[in-house]
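Task card 7
Instruction: Convert sequence to structure tokens.
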Amino acid sequence: MKALMFGWEFPPHILGGLGTASYGLTRGMAQQEDMEITFVIPKPWGDEDQSFLRIIGANSVPIVWKDNHYDYVRHRMEGRMSAEEYYHLRNNIHYDYSRIGTDDLGCVGFSGRYPDNLLEEIGNYEAVASVLAHALDFDIIHSHDWLTYPSGVFAKQISGKPLVIHVHATDFDRSRGNVNPTVYAIERRGMDEADHIMCVSELTRRTVIEKYGQPPHKVSTVHNAVEPLANPDEFVKHDRKDKLVTFLGRITMQKGPEYFVEAAARVLAKTDGVRFVMAGSGDMMNKMIDLVAQRGIADKFHFPGFMRGRQVQEVLADSDVYIMPSVSEPFGISPLEAMQVGCPSIISHQSGCAEILSHVIKTDYWDIDAMADAIYAIVKYPAMYKSLRELGRDEVNNIRWFDVGLKVRSIYDQVLREYRH
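Output:
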């Protein structure tokens, strides 16, 4: 089974949960003996793990014919792809993309991020997909999130192969209902054209059916998992006087950071000896710093900025409580990461992971008093802390990407059977 996947980020260079989920899923699926995955991202950095899949950088795919000498191509493409592969792709340019600015090899540049000209990059990515759809051999197309839906649709139209899309979030989640009509149109078209839609939670599945008009039989729930840690015991909790309560994620309205601050103020009004960390970055960062100052708790609050990789595990392992007060969280991998290193978690009922986790405390995102009570109970009652720590770790160690990969494979098989008939 050969899958052509379109993604937008891949570890170690990630800006959110999409890259983490893409890595875990593909690594889990690659354990199936006959599974071959080609994963396309706009801009690889060269240090991605390609031991279990093949990564193609969209910035290395020619979309405009340029006549270059073999030695020059080999030199320019060194470390990215072979000259032979470059020429093979160049021979599969079937459309005139001369309107798009390209370099001396006919390749288009990508930021590898979420730039101001994101819609332009999505369109350029679609051009790259057309070349790959003509040039590569694959059985099925798999597009991750709205940024790659147009590429998946175009690849389907060109190749005649079925398209599965993976909904990691919708614009209803990101915008608290204030939906961007352009983004919604891209999402809706991707869903309409897809042969099957995979959603990371029942919460997201309901949104896809109700808000995007998709037939229920076409939409499946495939919950995320968490990548096992090679040496979980090396992440330790340091002895200190104060308890540590951590929020870790994008500081945006979707994640409910203001509810975390308000709950912190409630806790600090009842007790001393607790500190709060808001790790991450986002458009509400300055607003949260101001809110912390207004509540008079700035001396108990820390803003360490964006964290990635090992830093995440270290701060979670050192925390007494992890809290995810998301207003609308399609899944939310971070509580699973916290539980892996023995950190008790509090999550909102409005999160997809609440559907599969038992040994956490669940509150409504808006219920600041319940959130504060849960924090207080964990930091003040050692038996509760110990129970959530131990049972949570056991629970999350049984939520494996390999099992998720088997479910995705069964969907592939079902789609291909239906497509052939």
